[in-house]
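URGENT: need a sanity check before tomorrow's submission.

F., can you look over the Glyoxylase, beta-lactamase superfamily II record below? I want to be sure the sequence and structure line up before it goes out.
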Amino acid sequence: MTGFEVVQVRYGERVTRKSAVLHEYASYGQPDGDLQMDYNFWVLRDGSRIVLLDTGYDITERDWLGEQPVISTPDALRLLDVDPLDVSTVVTSHFHYDHIGHLGLFANAEVVSGVAEHEYWFGKWHRGELDGEFATAGHLEAVWRAEKEGRLRLVTEETEVAPGLTVIPVGGHSPGELLTIVESRSGPLIMAADAAHFYEQIENEWPFFAFTDLDEMRRALALINRLAEERNATVIPGHDGRVRDRFPALGGPAAAVATVLG
Ligand SMILES: [Zn+2]
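C-alpha cells as predicted:
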C-alpha cells in the first residue's frame, strides 16, 4: 500500500493520574491510577515529501508541568535523517507550548493551523493576556513569521492540505484544535493530538480537564469515533504512553524514541 510512513517521536514524558487529567473523573466511579503521559510530535514521509505534525518544545529550557526530556527535536530529526529546512508542511494541532515550541526551525514549511486558533491566541497576545497561558509570545512569533512570509495557511473547515493529508477543525481543548487524518502505508490514521490525549477518552468519550469549550470537546470525541468507523481508521491519541505498546519501535538509531504508526 502506498501512503505516508508515520513515525511518532517521544521527546518528553511525565507520569500523571487519571483523576488529575480526566474531567470529573471521580463521577465515573472507577479506581484512580497512573497514566504515562508521552510528549510527541509526528513525522510523515511520502517519498521526498516530509510533513511534521506538531514540533515539540525545549523541555530543558523550561518544563511547564514537570515534563522530563527524552530527546530534543533537533536531535531526533537528525536521527531520522530529516533536515528541518526540507520539511514542506507543518500541521499545528493547536498553539500550546508543547506542540509549537520548535516551529521556528521549519523556515521553509507551509504552516497549517486552525483559523480559530490563530484568532484566539493572537487576540490574547495583542491584548497582553498571555500571562499564565499555555503559549508565550515567543511561540506565537514563529507563527507570525510564517504569516509574514506567506507560509501560513489557516483552515476553517475540513481541508485536504496535501494528497493524503486532511485536517478537520474541532475546537474543544483549544478553540482551533485540529484533527489530522493521514493516509498511511497501513491505512488511514486519525491523529487526535489533544482532541483526545488518552485511550480512555476515546473509548468512553471522556473530556480532558483542560478545555476552552466543554461541549465542543465532547462533540470532537464523538466525531473521532464516528470518523474512525466511517473511514475504517485507527485513532492515535496524542499523549498516551500505551501507543508504544500497540505499535513497533522504528529500527535503527532512533529506536528508543520513535514508534512506527503506519
Ligand atoms: Zn499537548
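My own read: The chain has a mean pLDDT of 97. The radius of gyration is 17 Å. If you see anything odd, call me.
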